[in-house]
């Protein structure tokens, strides 16, 4: 088995990405985004997740992070947020895509190797070891420019669900540890 996308060193910093099944645009309601933010904050406080940078897009999440138990922290984060976002979709009277999203998430679960009731996140989290400053800067720029490239905002710090605001000298949504 390849070690290419495994977080093997608990003392290192990784760039990770986790995406919604079928890259479905789920994070279009503030309520769903807040579930992700609150869960990340919990992982910071209770699971020793250090976040250096982050960006939540409509269908995926990027983190530059480290943790003594990164794989299990991300596993628990995904399991908890999958349940909470799915429940929020079901209970949201403004969700015009409720039937479609429910079908998509349930179908992904049925088709999964574990034949789960539902599946919200794609398998894995694609950790990339940031072993030098050039790679760290490249991923930091990529992560913060994601909403600009998608055409959602003109400046990275205008995106509410990102650490770009912190890097621009303002207080963002989550506490971060600056990359030195």
Q: Could you explain how this protein is built, in words?
A:
With 180 residues, this protein is α+β, with helices and mostly antiparallel strands. It has one domain (14-167): 2-Layer Sandwich (Alpha-Beta Plaits). It has helices at residues 30-46, 70-91, 98-111, 133-149, 164-167, and strands at 14-19, 50-56, 60-66, 128-129. Strands 2-3-1-4 form a four-stranded antiparallel β-sheet, with helices on both faces. Strand 2 and strand 3 (60-66) form a beta hairpin. Helix 1 runs antiparallel to helix 2 (70-91). The radius of gyration is 16 Å and the shape is globular. The model has no long low-confidence stretch (mean pLDDT 92).
Shape: globular
Strand order in the sheet with the most strands: 2-3-1-4
Unreliable residue stretches: none
- Give the radius of gyration: 16 Å
Count of DSSP helices? 5
Termini separation comes to: 33 Å
CATH fold description: Alpha-Beta Plaits
Helix share, percent: 40-55%
Total domain count: 1
CATH class category name: Alpha Beta
CATH H-level superfamily: Transposase IS200-like
Order of H and E elements: EHEEHHEHH
Mean pLDDT: 92
The appropriate CATH architecture is 2-Layer Sandwich
Q: Output the structural class.
A: alpha+beta
Tell me which oligomeric state these chains represent. Answer: single chain
- Say how many strands there are: 4
The major pleated sheet works out as: 4 strands, antiparallel
How much of the polypeptide forms β-strand, as a percent range? Answer: 5-15%
InterPro entries: RAYT_transposase (IPR052715), Transposase_17 (IPR002686), Transposase_17_sf (IPR036515)
Protein name: Transposase
GO molecular function: sequence-specific DNA binding; transposase activity
Pfam families: Y1_Tnp
């Amino acid at each position: 088995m390849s070690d290419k996308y495994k977080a093997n060193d608990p003392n290192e910093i990784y760039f990770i990405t986790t995406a919604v099944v079928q890259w479905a645009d789920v994070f279009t309601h503030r309520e769903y985004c807040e579930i992700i933010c609150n869960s990340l904050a919990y992982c910071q406080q209770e699971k020793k997740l250090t976040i250096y940078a982050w960006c939540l897009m409509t269908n995926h999440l990027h983190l530059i992070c480290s943790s003594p138990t990164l794989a299990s922290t991300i596993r628990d984060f995904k399991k908890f947020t999958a349940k909470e976002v799915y429940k929020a979709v079901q209970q949201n009277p403004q969700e015009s895509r409720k039937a479609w999203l429910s079908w998509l998430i349930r179908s992904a679960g049925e088709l999964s190797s574990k034949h789960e009731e539902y599946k919200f996140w794609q398998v894995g989290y694609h950790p990339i070891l940031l072993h030098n400053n050039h790679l760290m800067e490249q991923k930091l720029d990529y992560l913060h420019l994601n909403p600009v490239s998608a055409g959602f905002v003109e400046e990275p710090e205008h995106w509410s669900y990102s650490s770009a605001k912190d890097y621009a000298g303002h207080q963002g949504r989550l506490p971060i540890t600056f990359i030195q």
